[in-house]
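Attaching the record inline, Q. Sequence:
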Amino acid sequence: MSELVSAVDYMPTFLGLLGVEKPEAVTGLDFWPTVWGEAARDHVVTGFGWFGAVRTAEWNYVFPTRRDTGRGAPEEHRLYHVTEDPGEQTNVAAGHPEVVEKLKELARKVWRLSRTPAARRQHRR
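Structure, as predicted:
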């Protein structure tokens, strides 16, 4: 399988296999249909501690999630053209501001969803 899958997709996938509807606050997707060749998402948004990332088949956008960029977080927004630079060695953000803005907006949408009242209730459990 060459589709983009995230750790947050496991819960909706297992729930789907059990025939259980996923809670409203869960942002992941059921990836089981992609195992059988159905179309999947075109991007994955993830975050961990001090940084976040938006990954597509062609790009990886990495950004700090807090102003204090200590603890190994990136100090700047980075963009890697992973089809040409799979080792993510060269930050090309300055040369592709339109890609940065598009991926930044995708990240904003996920962060807004994760801050809904339903999401906050889910995370308090």
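The chain has two domains: 1-41, 43-125. Residues 79 and 96 are 8 Å apart (CA to CA).

More tomorrow.
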